[in-house]
Amino acid sequence: MNTHPIKLVVLVCEAALEKPLCADVKRLGARGYTVVDARGAGRRGERDGSWDEDRSIRMEVLCDAPTADAILNHVQAAYFRNYAMTVYTADIGVLRPEKFGPS
Hints:
By secondary structure, the protein is of the alpha+beta class. The protein has helices at 18-27, 65-78; strands spanning 4-14, 34-38, 40-42, 45-47, 56-63, 85-94.
């Protein structure tokens, strides 16, 4: 099976950032994203989502490398200082690469 290289950008953060992040990634060139509720624990304690201010999300964006770089640079500058956020990328392969190019 022939897959095509693309970037996966994953952002795990406070649920309060969902709307602005959705707008940001679209504005920065992503065609779409997936958002799901997330729970977990780390250095700063446990986030079990039992109350609204304790909810977290996981956003996944499949995009080309320039769009991934734009997203990473933006979230680092705009959110890292004031919000709990973990961000990582991976090189993956997809079928139907035309779905994930710049908008």
